[in-house]
């Protein structure tokens, strides 16, 4: 465990983002959008993201750093550099979620998943997802889901390793056909998430 609030995993510290680190989160996002498979991984596009003003990134990071609607988590390596990130979007009962679907219960989706190339295959995704899921459990979300492009086989494999199961549901999105994967988040496992 390091001095900062968060969970240490191997040589990584995992924690929720902080509003003041919006500049480096912007850089991480731009790097993700330049990934060779970004067109299969993200709905956003680098050309559009580059045009966004600082105020957009400040607000985006502020929203992800506090509250219970958006939670962004990062893994930080032993040198203090960002290694990867996961964002959870929480939707209240009856509200449309990020793909416009409604549900009678509270639900959450994992989006914006990125592990920097030099850190892939090192358990970073597992560590960040696990912290994200602990946060979600702590605010009462029973199940998390995500959508992964049918051609993004590495991401599918990585999510499977982290306990996500393909529901068989296929969703047509702007990047093509996506597989819905879910993971139940059982309550009562002793989580008392208070790291926000
Ligand atoms: C997707 C991502 C987060 C996964 O993190 P990672 O650290 O690379 O994942 P891992 O290496 O731990 O796991 C990938 C698994 O898929 C397997 N895999 C890799 N390529 C594969 C392929 N073409 N077909 C099937 N399985 C594959 C790997 O072997 C590995 O499983 P193993 O550890 O049992 O061998 C990361 O690669 C990334 O950021 N990619 C670019 C952006 C992206 O795709 N984001 C997800 C959007 S949904």
From TrEMBL:
The keyword Transferase applies. GO terms for molecular function: acyltransferase activity. It comes from the Bacteria. It is an enzyme of class 2 (transferase). Keywords: Acyltransferase, Transferase. Residues 12-186 form the N-acetyltransferase domain. Pfam families: Acetyltransf_1. Its EC number is 2.3.1.-. Coiled coil: none annotated. This is GNAT family N-acetyltransferase. The lineage of its organism: Bacteria, Bacillati, Actinomycetota, Actinomycetes, Micrococcales.
């Amino acid at each position: 465990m390091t001095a900062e609030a968060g969970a240490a995993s191997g040589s990584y510290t995992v924690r929720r983002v902080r509003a003041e680190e919006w500049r480096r989160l912007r850089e991480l996002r731009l790097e993700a959008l330049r990934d060779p498979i970004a067109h299969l991984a993200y709905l956003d596009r680098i050309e559009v993201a580059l045009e966004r003003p600082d105020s957009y990134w400040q607000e985006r990071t502020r929203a992800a750093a506090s509250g219970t609607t958006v939670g962004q988590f990062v893994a930080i390596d032993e040198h203090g550099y960002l290694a990867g990130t996961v964002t959870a979007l929480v939707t209240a009962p009856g509200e449309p979620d990020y793909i416009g679907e409604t549900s009678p219960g509270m639900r959450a989706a994992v989006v914006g998943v990125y592990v920097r190339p030099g850190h892939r295959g090192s358990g970073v995704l597992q560590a960040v997802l696990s912290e994200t899921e602990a946060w979600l459990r702590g605010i009462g979300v029973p199940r998390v889901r995500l959508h992964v492009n049918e051609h993004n086989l590495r991401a599918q494999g990585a999510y499977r390793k982290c306990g996500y199961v393909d529901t068989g549901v296929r969703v047509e999105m702007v990047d093509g056909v996506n597989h819905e994967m879910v993971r139940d988040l059982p309550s009562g496992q002793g989580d008392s998430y208070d790291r926000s």
